[in-house]
Amino acid sequence: MSYAIIGFGAVGQALAKAFTRKGIEVSVATTRDPESFAAEAAAIGPKVIAGTLAEAVGADIIFLAVRFESYRVIAKALPTWQGKIIVDVTNAYGVSAEELVEQSSAKAVAQAFTGARLVKGFNHLVAGILEQDPAVHGGRRAVFLASDDDAAATEIGALAEKLGFAPVKLGGLSEGGLLVQARGNSWGRLIFKDLVKFD
Length: 199
Description:
Elements (H helix, E strand, L loop, with lengths): L2 E4 L3 H12 L4 E4 L8 H7 L3 E3 L2 H4 L4 E4 L6 H5 L9 E4 L3 E2 L11 H8 L4 E5 L5 H4 L4 E2 L2 E9 L2 H13 L3 E4 L6 H4 L2 E3 L1 E2 L8 E2 L2
Parallel strand pairs: 1-2, 1-4, 2-3, 4-5, 5-7, 6-11, 9-10
Antiparallel strand pairs: 7-9, 8-9, 9-13, 11-12
């Protein structure tokens, strides 16, 4: 299984640190030349590989960690995303409800990535929390997952476990997705909730 993170701002780097903690190789890409962020990637760990967008979209599981406004540009990188899981880490704060046509922001992203199996997740924590070791207070930091594809959510849940998090499935994008999204000037009810699960 191969992994990529598209977007290498604070959230993308926080995700890369999560992979590094567990020694899992992950490619990172932006729309820029990889040489412009290769040093930052190398500083996180030797298994964080800076590459081009064209290389990153070849991965099996892709974390979309760009600004919400950029998702359509990334979606055009492939004619079909069949067979890939996209983890939507975006937040649409400031984007009008009219632009989202009364649907969750994750639904809008899912429609753009034709053929992909989309899971909304890892977006409810600010980067400064997300980059920390998820083993806290004798438990594991929760990450919320919503998807219309239960098998994809299960697969990303297993990856979250491997990264040390406690996955919590919220159901479909029209229900659970609304709990972990931003739209207009409001945040979903679970955004910024830093919860810890005790086994």
